């Protein structure tokens, strides 16, 4: 029994294990508030810990965010953060090579990791009677990951295969993961590939990886979130038992790279992709960091324009004029960043459409917003969508854990998640019109037309 | 020497060796009395040496994998494991309306949300063979307007609540869904009822939905996994099953008519052929009342027989089905075989084998192909059931030049449990793992609703999911060995996607190679 989602689009929307879960934009409604319990504390070694009990299912998620991603790499030493996403599942002092996955798999649980420019996440969701075991595993690899020429060599081969599979063998992926960030971001830190250079990986000696690990994979550069079926007092004691003895690492003050605004006129590139089954346009704009007021306004505007079949862009482009098969507009996509970011639109052409016609209709809709603004009904609908997303976001254990880690790492504290949709109440229709005129202009745009064809 | 050349030479040498052997036999036949030692044959000797080397490599690989498994099995248990919390599989409340519509309710009041699914037994396999996208076109058009509301109005109604509606076509069923805040349950049920009962099938929407279907097929053809899956089903189920159909052409999709849609809807969309599943923050009484309010006037229809294809006889030889995807940066390789379907004897054994072989990083396939040999980013296995049997699929992607090595190791790994059995401790570990996994699988009533639907559609015993864990735990090593033999004891089908000119010779050493284009039509 199976259902085939449109597989080509899966290639776009699930761009990678490289980039990861993006926090849902959130907004307001008159609905009853929904909140989750949050307890937080910090160990003397600097590890920030978030606990959120939820006994609705006998499972627990253990989620660690390290404040290191591809943006912390240096030229000539790229691909390190992503390679560590692999290495962290190899051996450590108390956990022999191959045992990490073996232990977690045997619980029936799931594990994974993902790498973004500003962070790397590691997580396990398991039956709740294995909580202590997961803390043991996570603490062990934070304390003493084994990094040898042999273990690094094997994972470098696996990473090279991952790049071939995810970036070079999937429709659109090479442009979206490699060419687009290079054009859309101005800083080297954000514009280089998260996968990095395979040559850099090959050339780097083991000591370079050891130094990188010692600098960034430390208690005071991490946030640990436990979410699910446990008692907080017992969980706290276990965290102290396993993570308390770990040594503090160097003091870092991680910031975000300085991004110059795209002001020199529009950037346009047409790329031929021999794997592409249909034409696709990617249009992006520089936008402020998450949670700044203008960013919130832009996220709300993206919801109004594309979220739901009655939203302006799908209604016109897909239903009325049948120019597009699908439309998507999202901030922090396809590469999530927590400094300056991008608001990107994907326009998937319908069968007979030229991308130029599709883009013209898209710009026409943006111009209408700039001139006439949006209606009260549209604003209300968007707020209802954001409230629903907020509630959904608190429903699943692992997703909740990921959001708590994001809030603690980047948004000023995990506790801010409760009721956070209300911050969108401050945004007016005038704000939406203003940000559309300020940020969504032709001069500030970067456009990639990806069309089927090219060398096979 | 490249791997490709080595394999091509090995193939030539094996051919040479067998010819030499024949010549020797006939030579003895002609001159039985002449007991003269044959002269040394360098070709045969080289072939024998090659075969010995290959056997030694395979043995070395198997020994290392077994040693790694033994090393892992000897690990101390994780600290602090406590007694597992009970996994409660909630009992659905089932009522039946006077018109025959079954209403299934699963309560969960943790969050103020509800998930509403109208399931109709009108999936892809119910469409005629020459109109294979008719089921998908029909459900795609249900959201395009009803007797009371245009598409735009329906969309506005749902979007205003923050909720979403959806249409999905699986092989056996189609699902009209609404995901709403619980305060908007009434509206959600009402919208689904309108869509199912009074669609207008506007002619002007036909092209849009057909274009989307054509793009979906294009997308599947553009994906190595999409191609592998479609080819696997063709090979396992064959032309006489609705599960083994070829890709439809653009002409076939464009040729579907509104009349065909209207007739398909009239025949299949009726209350006796559907289930209404409401899960989440709702009381059964309220759900039943809303079902009656909005679906009570749905007219009953005739029972539809479940389509059953003729089971494809297993092939008597190993064949490599090579799809020529010239732009591939890798080779995607899968080994597929027929298997027991859900509810049949051997099904749970196959699930255990799936977990042992393909289950995550510790599965045998990843342990050897990824961790030991570094040949792949990831390799996996899955088992999928149908009304016409089931398929076991195992595979992944590798460098084109490693395709031979990857395939050989993959085949060896699949055959090992049949040859050597599965040690009792490994079986116990897998059983415990599947049991734990079930706890994760039942998080949220939406997932439980899905399992309930599967149980109903496949006609599984009512207590199938309640017994799932104990049934898994009762499997014996002997059963697993026997099931493994039935899966991989004989010839298998190999599916390969990549540049055929670079793969054909390499893969020829595993069996006859049939080359296909991206439409899965034979080439040359």
How are the secondary structure elements laid out?
The complex is a heterodimer of chains A (456) and B (524).
Chain A: H1 7-13, E1 39-42, E2 48-53, E3 59-66, H2 80-87, H3 99-107, E4 110-115, E5 120-127, H4 131-144, H5 149-168, H6 173-184, H7 188-191, H8 198-203, H9 206-216, E6 222-228, H10 232-243, E7 267-273, E8 280-287, H11 293-306, H12 312-320, E9 324-331, E10 341-349, H13 355-372, H14 376-393, H15 397-410, H16 429-439, E11 445-452
Parallel strand pairs in A: 2-6, 7-11
Antiparallel strand pairs in A: 1-2, 3-5, 3-6, 4-5, 8-10, 8-11, 9-10
Chain B: H1 3-30, H2 42-73, E1 93-96, E2 102-107, E3 113-120, H3 134-142, H4 151-159, E4 164-169, E5 174-181, H5 185-197, H6 203-222, H7 224-237, H8 250-254, H9 258-268, E6 274-280, H10 284-295, E7 319-324, E8 331-339, H11 347-358, H12 364-372, E9 379-386, E10 389-398, H13 403-420, H14 424-441, H15 445-457, H16 464-473, H17 477-488, E11 493-498, H18 500-507, E12 512-516
Parallel strand pairs in B: 2-6, 7-11, 7-12
Antiparallel strand pairs in B: 1-2, 3-5, 3-6, 4-5, 8-10, 8-11, 9-10
Helix pairs in contact in B: 1-2, 1-18, 2-12, 3-6, 3-9, 5-10, 6-7, 11-17, 12-13, 13-17, 14-16
Polypeptide structure, described:
- The complex is a heterodimer of chains A (456) and B (524).
- By secondary structure, chain A is an alpha+beta fold.
- Chain A folds into two domains: 17-27 and 35-243, Cytochrome Bc1 Complex, Chain A, domain 1 (2-Layer Sandwich), CATH 3.30.830; 267-452, Metalloenzyme, LuxS/M16 peptidase-like (Cytochrome Bc1 Complex, Chain A, domain 1, 2-Layer Sandwich).
- Chain A is built from 16 helices and eleven strands.
- Chain A has helices spanning 7-13, 80-87, 99-107, 131-144, 149-168, 173-184, 188-191, 198-203, 206-216, 232-243, 293-306, 312-320, 355-372, 376-393, 397-410, 429-439; strands at 39-42, 48-53, 59-66, 110-115, 120-127, 222-228, 267-273, 280-287, 324-331, 341-349, 445-452.
- Chain A has a six-stranded mixed beta sheet with strand order 1-2-6-3-5-4, with helices on both faces. In chain A, strands 7-11-8-10-9 form a five-stranded mixed beta sheet, sandwiched between helices.
- In chain A, helix 11 (293-306) packs across helix 14 (376-393), helix 11 (293-306) crosses helix 16 (429-439) and helix 13 packs across helix 16.
- Chain A starts with 6 loop residues before the first helix and ends with a strand.
- The relative contact order of chain A is 0.19.
- A six-stranded mixed beta sheet of chain B has the order 1-2-6-3-5-4, with helices on both faces.
- Chain B is globular, with a radius of gyration of 27 Å.
- Helices cover 48% and strands 16% of the residues of chain B.
- Chain B is an alpha+beta fold.
- In chain B, a hairpin with a 4-residue loop joins strand 4 (164-169) and strand 5.
- Chain B folds into three domains: 3-73; 95-295, Cytochrome Bc1 Complex, Chain A, domain 1 (2-Layer Sandwich); 319-516, Cytochrome Bc1 Complex, Chain A, domain 1 (2-Layer Sandwich).
- Chains A and B meet through helix 1, helix 3, strand 5, helix 4 and helix 5 of A and helix 2, helix 4, strand 4, helix 6 and helix 7 of B.
């Amino acid at each position: 029994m199976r259902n085939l989602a449109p597989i080509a689009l899966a290639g776009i929307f699930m761009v990678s294990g490289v980039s990861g879960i993006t926090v849902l934009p959130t907004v307001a409604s008159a609905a009853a508030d929904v909140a989750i319990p949050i307890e937080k504390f910090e160990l003397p070694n600097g590890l920030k810990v978030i606990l959120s009990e939820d006994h609705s299912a006998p499972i627990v998620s253990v989620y660690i965010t390290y404040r290191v991603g591809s943006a912390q790499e240096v030229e000539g030493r790229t691909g390190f953060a992503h390679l560590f996403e692999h290495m962290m599942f190899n051996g450590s002092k108390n956990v022999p090579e191959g045992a990490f996955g073996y232990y977690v798999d045997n619980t029936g649980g799931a594990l994974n990791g993902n790498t973004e420019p500003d962070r790397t996440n590691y997580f396990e969701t398991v039956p709740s009677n294995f909580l202590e075991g997961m803390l043991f595993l996570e603490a062990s690899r934070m304390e003493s990951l084994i990094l040898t020429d042999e273990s690094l060599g094997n994972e470098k081969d696996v990473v090279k295969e991952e790049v071939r599979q995810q970036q070079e063998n999937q429709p659109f992926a090479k442009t979206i993961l490699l060419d687009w960030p290079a054009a859309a971001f101005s800083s080297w830190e954000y514009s280089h590939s998260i996968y990095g250079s395979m040559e850099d990986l090959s050339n780097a000696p083991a000591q370079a990886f050891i130094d990188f690990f010692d600098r960034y994979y430390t208690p005071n550069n991490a946030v640990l979130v436990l979410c699910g079926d446990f008692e907080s007092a017992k969980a706290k004691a276990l965290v102290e038992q396993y993570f308390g003895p770990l040594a503090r690492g160097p003091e870092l003050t991680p910031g975000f790279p300085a991004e110059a605004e795209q002001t020199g006129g529009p950037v346009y590139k047409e790329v031929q992709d021999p794997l592409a089954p249909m034409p696709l346009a990617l249009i992006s704009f520089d936008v402020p960091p998450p949670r700044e007021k203008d960013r919130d306004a832009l996220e709300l505007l993206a919801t109004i324009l594309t979220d739901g079949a009655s939203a302006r862009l799908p209604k016109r482009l897909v239903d009325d004029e049948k120019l597009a098969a699908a439309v998507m507009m999202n901030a922090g996509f396809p590469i999530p960043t927590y400094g300056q970011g991008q608001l990107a639109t994907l326009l998937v052409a319908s069968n007979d459409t030229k991308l130029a016609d599709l883009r013209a209709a898209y710009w026409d809709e943006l111009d209408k917003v700039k001139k006439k603004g949006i209606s009260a009904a549209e604003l209300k609908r968007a707020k209802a969508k954001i409230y629903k997303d907020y509630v959904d976001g608190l429903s699943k254990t692992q997703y909740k854990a990921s959001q708590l880690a994001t809030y603690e790492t980047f948004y000023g504290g995990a506790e801010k998640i409760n009721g956070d949709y209300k911050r969108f109440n401050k945004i007016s229709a005038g704000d939406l019109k203003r940000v559309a005129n300020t940020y969504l202009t032709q001069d500030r745009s970067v456009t990639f037309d990806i069309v089927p064809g090219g060398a096979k | 020497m490249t791997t490709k050349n080595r394999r091509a030479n090995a193939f030539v040498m094996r051919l040479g060796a067998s010819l030499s052997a024949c010549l020797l036999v006939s030579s003895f036949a002609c001159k039985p009395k002449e007991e003269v030692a044959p002269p040394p044959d360098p070709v045969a000797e080289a072939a024998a040496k090659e075969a010995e080397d290959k056997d030694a490599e395979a043995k070395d690989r198997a020994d290392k994998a077994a040693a790694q498994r033994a090393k892992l099995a000897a690990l101390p248990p994780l600290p602090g494991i406590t007694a597992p919390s009970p996994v409660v599989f909630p009992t659905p409340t089932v009522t039946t309306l006077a018109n025959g519509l079954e209403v299934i309710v699963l309560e969960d009041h943790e969050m103020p949300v509800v998930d509403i699914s109208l399931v109709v037994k009108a999936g892809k396999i119910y469409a005629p063979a020459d109109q294979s996208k008719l089921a998908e076109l029909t459900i795609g058009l249900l959201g395009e307007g009803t007797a009371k509301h245009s598409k735009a109005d329906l969309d506005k109604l749902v979007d205003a609540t923050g909720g979403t509606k959806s249409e999905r076509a699986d092989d056996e069923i189609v699902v009209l869904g609404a995901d709403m805040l619980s305060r908007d349950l009434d509206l959600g049920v009402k919208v689904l009822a309108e869509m199912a009962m009074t669609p207008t099938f506007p002619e002007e929407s036909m092209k849009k939905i057909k274009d989307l279907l054509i793009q979906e097929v294009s997308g599947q053809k553009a994906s190595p996994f999409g191609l592998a899956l479609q080819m696997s089903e063709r090979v396992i189920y064959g032309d006489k099953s609705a599960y083994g159909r070829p890709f439809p052409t653009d002409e076939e999709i464009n040729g579907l008519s509104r009349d065909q849609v209207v007739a398909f809807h009239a025949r299949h969309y009726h209350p006796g052929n559907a289930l209404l599943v409401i899960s989440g923050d709702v009381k059964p009484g309220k759900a039943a009342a809303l079902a009656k309010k909005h679906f009570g006037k749905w007219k009953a229809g005739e029972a539809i027989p479940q389509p059953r294809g003729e089971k494809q006889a297993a092939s008597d030889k190993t064949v490599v089905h090579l799809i020529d995807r010239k732009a591939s940066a890798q080779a995607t390789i899968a080994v597929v075989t027929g298997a027991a379907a859900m509810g049949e004897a051997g099904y749970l054994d196959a699930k255990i084998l799936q977990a042992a072989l393909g289950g995550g990083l510790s599965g045998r396939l990843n342990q050897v192909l990824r961790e030991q040999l570094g040949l792949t980013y990831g390799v996996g296995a899955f088992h999928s059931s149908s009304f016409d049997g089931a398929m076991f699929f195992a595979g992944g992607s590798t460098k084109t030049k490693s395709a031979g090595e990857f395939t050989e190791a993959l085949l060896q790994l699949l055959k090992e449990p049949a040859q050597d059995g599965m040690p009792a401790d490994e079986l116990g570990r897998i059983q415990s793992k599947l049991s734990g996994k079930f706890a994760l699988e039942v998080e949220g009533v939406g997932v439980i609703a899905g399992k309930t639907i599967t149980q109903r559609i496949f006609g599984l015993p009512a207590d199938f999911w309640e017994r799932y864990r104990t049934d898994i735990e009762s499997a014996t090593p002997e059963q697993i060995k026997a099931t493994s033999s039935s899966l991989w004891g004989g010839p298998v089908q190999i599916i390969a996607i990549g540049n055929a000119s670079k793969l054909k010779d390499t893969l020829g050493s595993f069996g006859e190679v049939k080359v296909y284009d991206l439409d899965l039509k034979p080439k040359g």
